[in-house]
């Protein structure tokens, strides 16, 4: 009887692990890992350059222009792996890259909590929030003010000399957070040199 119970427990454990893996696979590409902004009407050209850069590392990479001049990157690579590959050899028509370190549903309470959690996890001392309104689903001012107020007593909002900038990109069905030192989101030769020094 005891062996049977142990077998059943082991079977339940294995089943839950398998189910968890299946769910992970199904949700892996529910959100893009990063977005890249491009020049006006340069989406197709930049997409080709990005695919050429990422394909050797991920055969299943997908890039979609879901918002005009904003390319969403779906990949098995981590957001920071994507950032490193693209920042080290930026496409000629790409302006900025935002690897999503976390994503939130478009509910202001969830957005504020996740933004605060990300800042606290990095032990940020001085920061500011830059919300980018790519769709009109959420009010950017609410995001910036809400996170700033929630960080009172934990970190200083500083626009002149921030340690980090918390970027909040409002997309069609979610918000993506990126946490950078000032200027690290830019894709250019001069910014590449800046990133290498840091």
Automatic annotation (TrEMBL):
One of its GO terms (molecular function) is methyltransferase activity. It comes from the Archaea. SUPFAM superfamilies: THUMP domain-like. The chain crosses the membrane at residues 7-31. Keywords: Membrane, Methyltransferase, Transferase, Transmembrane, Transmembrane helix. GO terms for biological process: methylation. This is RNA methyltransferase. It comes from Sulfuracidifex metallicus DSM 6482 = JCM 9184.
